[in-house]
Amino acid sequence: MNEKQRLASQQIKQPNSTDVKSDANDNLDRLKQMSSDDLISRYFQTTYEPPNMRKAKKRLKKDVDIHYDFEIPEEMQNIGEGKKFMIRTYGCQMNEHDTEVMAGILTQMGYTSTDDTHDADIILLNTCAIRENAENKVFGEIGHLKPLKTENPDLILGVCGCMSQEESVVNRILEKHQFVDLIFGTHNIHRLPQLVQEAMFGKEMVVEVWSKEGDIIENLPKQRKGNIKAWVNIMYGCDKFCTYCIVPYTRGKERSRLPEDIVQEVRHLAAQGYKEVTLLGQNVNAYGKDFDFEYGLGDLMEEISKIDIPRVRFTTSHPRDFDDRLIDVLSKHDNLLDHIHLPVQSGSSDILRVMARRYTREQYLELVRKIREAMPNATLTTDIIVGFPNETDEQFEETLSLVEEVGFESAYTFIYSPREGTPSARWEDHTPMEVKKERLQRLNALVNQQSADTMKKYQGETVKVLVEGESKKDPDVLSGYTERNKLVNFRGPKSVIGEMVDVKITNTKTWTLDGEMVESAVEVN
Ligand code: SAH
Ligand code: SF4
Ligand code: F3S
Question: pTM (2 decimals)?
Answer without folding.
Answer: 0.89
